[in-house]
Please model this.
Amino acid sequence: MAPMKNASPVGDIQSAIRAAGARVTPARVRALAALRAASSPQTHAEIEETLAQEAHPAIDRVTLYRVLDWLCSAGLAHKAADARGVFRFSAAQPNVEHAGHVHFRCTGCGGVFCLKSPPPPAPALPRGFRLGGMALDIRGECPRCVRAHS
Ligand SMILES: [Zn+2]
Ligand SMILES: [Zn+2]
Model:
């Protein structure tokens, strides 16, 4: 699916949500817009605070949790714990199929970065086992956190 030229950011967000096979709701659009506008990974509370400053009805806490989890499962956002163990959310790079490459998780800021490498092949399984999925946890520090700690 080619992105439309000259599409407004909101139009981009709406089509990304539609492409994920979901209904476009104001809460999903606003949460994803807030993540894409953020310069660093955001906690649930920070996103809640950003959205509360908008001239729209507030999104209640539970709905926002659900929306953020949905964005992550739809591949539109990433979730990773920061150095204090607090989960932070960041927008996934738009118009990219994230199943085709692996991700690097920064343990400093909770950022998640797309790597160019494809996922490794599944290991050979003993007889009788059936593979259901693989999750690879590649972690360390991003360049910004490395600089901050040296
Ligand atoms: Zn970092
Ligand atoms: Zn990715």
User: Anything to note?
Assistant: Confidence is low (pLDDT under 50) at residues 1-7.
